[in-house]
Amino acid sequence: MVTPCYNASATLAETIASVAGQTYPHLEHIVVDDCSTDASWELVSQHQDRVRGLRLTENRGAAFARNRGVELARGDYLVFLDADDLMGSEAVAALVAAVRDRPRSVGYCGWRRWREARGQWQAMPAEIPPLQPDQDPLRGWLENVWVPPCAILWRRDSYEITGGWDERLSLNDDGDLMMRALAKGVRLVRAEGGESYYREHHGSRLTVSNDVTSEPKFRSRVRSYRNLMDELIRQDRLTEYAEPLGVLFHQLAEFAFREGYPASARECTTLGHQLVGPRAVSRSWVGRWLTRALGMERKERVLNRLARWGIGGRKRRKALHLRDLHAGTQAPPVPPDPRVQTRCAQPGA
User: Fold this and answer.
1) Counting C-beta atoms within 10 Å of the first and last residue's C-beta, which end of the chain has fewer, N or C?
2) What contacts 3, CB < 8 A, 6 or more positions away?
């Protein structure tokens, strides 16, 4: 069990307790403190009977911390449990049973969101469609199926196939790891029992201090999908996943135009066109109509202008407010990959 930790003193003790309460008897819990400035390391020190701690000398991010934790881990199985998530007492036992006799596999169990409501933390529905038994798991991951790390157990042989966590990423690093594993033939196995809890901090997606919509975080997301493209190109399988990847890049482009990252948005638009041609991917029919009439960039510019005038959805207005607060943080774009055009160009749809 590897837990990366950065300024998580409010939740870390509860996470440690959830590991200590597992019915599976052979557990090693490694907590890697990513140079926290709060009382996190003091908590690790107080729980030396339950955890093995490592304190980094500088803040390097969760992916770096997880890789250092794996280097210390001695077991045949790995779980990456964030410092604010929880595992039900039967989770590890059920996950191990699912993959014990299945080489090159990864186990996952049921999970729910752990959300604060009326002053209490409660388990809520996952709100993400589960993976269907006959569904291609890699395609599912590209089409909005997702399982958080707290509900996933890796056989060490399966993990080592991936090469580890990409330390350049700050968002979707868990998706990147899973997609690269699935692309390399690792099987995903559903455990027959167990449940984990993914903590959802109120408003965490729309705050200045922890803004997952900032351009550096967006660039990390784009890079994670380019990592997958690189792997599929190496295997000469990119055309197999051109449709979901192309639609996804168009969706990322729409998001980036809305958030005010035009260079990143145009890169994603180019990749989307190379993979599947032009697409109108807005959720509403009005948005799709406007995309076809004006183009995605002009459509988002018009809708943002209307939102600044008080016309439009509350979510867009709040996002614009955050954009103003985060002005000047844009990262340089990564150029489109010319290999995609030669392999996946398709007529417009």
Assistant:
1) C
2) 12, 15, 16, 19, 29, 30, 31, 32, 51, 69, 80, 81, 82, 83
Closest alpha carbon to 186 in 95, 99, 106, 80: 106
| Contact assessment for residue 167 and residue 67, using Cβ atoms and an 8 Å cutoff | yes
Q: Classify 2-202 by CATH class.
A: alpha beta
8 A C-beta contact, residue 105 and residue 187: yes
Flag whether pLDDT at 217 surpasses 80.
yes
Question: Please, are residues 98 and 155 in contact by the beta-carbon 8 Å criterion?
Answer: no
What is the full DSSP assignment across 215-284?
A: HHHHHHHHHHHHHHHHHHHHTT-GGGGHHHHHHHHHHHHHHHHHHT-HHHHHHHHHHHHHHH------SS
Continuous H helices in 123-169: 137-142, 156-162
> What's the pLDDT tens digit per position in 43-67?
999 999 999 999 999 999 999 999 9
pLDDT tens per residue across span 6-18: 999 999 999 999 9
Query: Can you spell out the DSSP letters for 39-55?
Result: SHHHHHHHTTTT-EEEE
> Tokens 């509900």 appear where?
151
Place of tokens 């993979």: 275
Find the helix packing angle between 314-325 and 296-308, rounded to 10°: 90
User: In sequence order, what are the beta bridge partners of 107?
Assistant: 153, 189
Show the tokens assigned to 271: 């990749």
The domain spans of the chain are 2-202, 206-344
